Every structure is written in structure tokens, then in C-alpha cells.
Amino acid sequence: MSKEVHLRKFKCVSCKREARVRILYPFCEACFLKHYERRVETVMRRYRLIEPQDKVLVAVSGGKDSLSCAHFLNRYREKVDFDVAVLHIDVGIVECTNERTERVVRSFCEQRGIEFYHLTFEDYLGVNPEILFRKSRRPQCSLCGMLKRYIMNRFARERGFNKVATGHCCDDIVRFFFKNWISRNFTWIMKLRPITESNHPKVITRIRPLFESLELENYTYAMINNINVAGCSRCSFFLRKDKWYDILRMIEKRDPYFKLNFVRGLHKIKWYNTDDQRVLNECIRCGEPTDKEICSVCVTKEVLNR
Ligand code: AMP
Ligand code: ZN
After folding, report:
1. Looking at ligand 1, which residue's alpha carbon is closest to its atom 8?
2. Residue 115 is inside which H or E element, if any?
3. Cys bridge to 289: 78, 195, 202, 305, which one at CB 3.0-4.6 A?
4. pLDDT at 167 over 50
5. Secondary element (H or E) of residue 283
6. Pocket mutation for ligand 1, best pick of 60, 61, 211 (most atoms within 8 Å of C-beta)
7. pLDDT at 237 over 50
8. How many whole angstroms from 55 Cα to the centroid of ligand 2?
9. Is the CB of 39 under 6 A from ligand 1?
10. Residue 69, SS3?
11. 98 CA distance to ligand 2 centroid (A)?
């Protein structure tokens, strides 16, 4: 039986018409969109993610999560007066970002009149990513993440943005929590809250509007809105199928609301809500904030000169 035929048995919980989507509840497409946006808006208000006149730079990889985040924020401007622009970083690995990803994100922005910025590791950092990935001992995903975070923060500040929004979603938070709990990286766990306020004049506040949105909901939101999705086929094209994906899938089979209830309870944990206590200095090489003398990006760049 096809999925659609199967869904005909269900009625939308909101309007009682035929359901077309069934993630947590059955919905018709229009009611799903309302339900999705209502939940994100609740997160926006509860954690005060946006204030009027904010200048928000949305980091968009081209995947379903960050494109949904940018689409939502652009629509949210009808309710709150703030600026939105998009930054897409070409990391120089063909499977992750390439000319097609750039075209997808650029045309998404053009269709909506959103300011679009495109940077490459090579141009912005002056390093050849292939050589860097080959020479560094750090795993590629971790190196790539570190360089992207550096660029997002520095570029946003240089261009006068006061917030950076990312597409981190509920599934990311739960997976990240378990992974880092098991390896006892508690300081990392605290990094993924709906908002991480700036703790240094050179650090830009981070917001994660999709904190309570499931990956599948983001995918469905993007599809219903006819958003063309590209993105990294290695780590985030559709679902991240690692060990934690399987474990969480098993839990979800018993309790479909597990991930949502899990992230909703996090703010009650005292230590999770403690701000990063590290004292930040400015890197003696590039001037960017770091808790060491030389920041990890400059240390990594030095590898190239060896
Ligand atoms: P990831 O580290 O792949 O889980 O991505 C987390 C978030 O970082 C995404 O939801 C995006 O907001 C942002 N991001 C990841 N890759 C890129 C990229 N190449 N360019 C811009 N933003 C990105
Ligand atoms: Zn540096």
C-alpha cells in the first residue's frame, strides 16, 4: 500500500480534511504549515531569540534544516521588524558544497529578495581546503565545523550583524547531547541551547530557531513550500544515519514524542543553562576570540606551513 493511500484513512487533527502528512499528528498540508510555524514562533518568543531591529545572518548549507530556518525567519519578519541575510560557505569538498549548492541557495534568496553572501574557505581563510584536510590530523567533519563557526562569527561581525542563526534542529540537539554525554564533553553540550548569548565583544550571539523542530518536520516544511534542497551528502543531506540515528529510532518507535520532550526538558537542568565560564582573549595571530593564545584556526593553518 502506498504511503498516500495509507494516509487517506486519517483525518487532519485540526480541520478534519484528508491528512497528507503524518509525523507526530496527522495534518493536511495547510494545517501542518500552521502547526510547524506556531511551534517555532513559541520557541522564538519563549527564549527571546529575536528583538526588533536585529540584524540576523542565517548560515545556510543548502540542506532542509537551514533552508527551512531561513524561510521561516524571512516570513517571521511580517510579525517582527528585523533584517535577514543568508551566508553560504563553500567548504571546497565536492560532496559537501559545490556550485550546485551555491545555485540552490542563491536562487532561494533571489526568489525572496534576501541578501546573499557566498564565501569559500580558500578566499576567506587563504587556505587550500584539500591540502588542509589532508595534512590535518583532526577528523574532517570536526575541522570543517570549526572553520565554518570561525567564518560565521567573524564575517557576521565584520558586516554588522548582531545574531547568527543556524538550522540546528531537535534531532541534532538530542544526538549531540548523547554523543557528548557518553564522551563526558559536558561543556560542548551547553553550546546547543536555543540561544547562546555573546560572552565577548567579538563573539556574535547564536540563535537556533529550530530547536524544537524535528528533521522530518523540516524536510516536510521545505517540501510543502517547494523549497529546492541541496546540501551535504556526507553529513546532512537528509537524515544523519549514524549509530545514534539507529538508537534514537528504536526509542522513537516506543515513544514518538521522545526527542521533543527531551529537548523541552533541557532548560530545567541547572548546569545546562550555565554560560561558558572560559575567559576569552584575542588570538595573537588573527585577533579572533579564543581561550588560548593562538586560536584553533590559526594553529590549523600553521600545519600547512610545516
Ligand atoms: P552541521 O554542522 O552540518 O550540522 O550544520 C549545522 C548548521 O550550520 C546548519 O544548520 C547551518 O545553519 C550551518 N551550516 C552548515 N554548513 C554550512 C555551510 N556550508 N554554509 C553555511 N552554513 C552552514
Ligand atoms: Zn587566530
Report:
1. 166
2. strand 115-120
3. 202
4. yes
5. none
6. 61
7. no
8. 25
9. no
10. helix
11. 26
Atom of ligand 1 nearest to the CA of 65: 10
pTM of the model: 0.93
Phi then psi dihedrals of residue 235, to 5 deg: -120, -20
CB 54 within 8 A of CB 163: yes
Ligand nearest to the CA of 87: 1
CB atoms within 10 A of CB 30: 14
pLDDT at 245 over 90: no
Q: How far is CA 224 from the centre of its chain?
A: 20
Say if CB 48 and CB 194 are below 8 A apart.
no
Ligand nearest to the CA of 233: 1
Residue reference for cell 539507529: 246
Give the strand pairing for 163-165 and 195-196: unpaired
- For ligand 1, is residue 218 a contact (CB within 6 Å)? no
Q: How many helices (H) does the chain have, and how many strands (E)?
A: 13, 10
Q: How far is the CA of 36 from the centre of ligand 1 (A)?
A: 21
Nearest CA to ligand 1 atom 15: 61
Distance CA 117, CA 96 (A): 18
196: enclosing H helix or E strand:
strand 195-196
**pLDDT score recorded for residue 8:** 58
Residue whose CA lies nearest to ligand 1 atom number 3: 236
Is 63:88 a contact under the CB 8 Å cutoff? no
DSSP 185: -
Cell readout for 242 is 549514524
Burial class (CB in 10 A: 0-12, 13-18, 19+), 194: buried
DSSP three-state, residue 118: strand
Ligand with an atom nearest the CA of residue 125: 2
Distance 299 CA to ligand 2 centre (A): 7
Tell which residue, 204, 203, 206, has the closest CA to residue 190: 206
